[in-house]
Hints:
Elements lengths: L1 E4 L10 E8 L2 E8 L2 E6 L7 E2 L2 H7 L8 E5 L18 E5 L12
Parallel strand pairs: 1-4, 2-6
Antiparallel strand pairs: 2-3, 3-4, 3-5, 6-7
Amino acid sequence: MKKVLFKQLPKLNIEKLIFSSLEQALYQAIVVIDEQEYVVWESDQKTMLSRNLMQLREQFKTLDVAETVLRHESPYDEMIGQPTKDSSNRMEVKLDKNPYAAAKWLH
């Protein structure tokens, strides 16, 4: 998968913002630009990862994004007695642009 630096994002047309759930509350930011997925990097050496989804979402709140989703793919089907599948078990849940359930000023 290709990479893009976070500081480049304000200049790009982001079709979709994906928060990929990797493992036990570890999230990775991915963006879709021109129908291709790019992993978001904080710097040339560090991928944008967080154990706090809310904080990760806050970093993207000023960007103009058409769609935001939370993605989960489980590699553990065979560990719970399910047969290995030829197809993906990817699940995406749409998220609101606002990272808060209620307006932040109400907290």
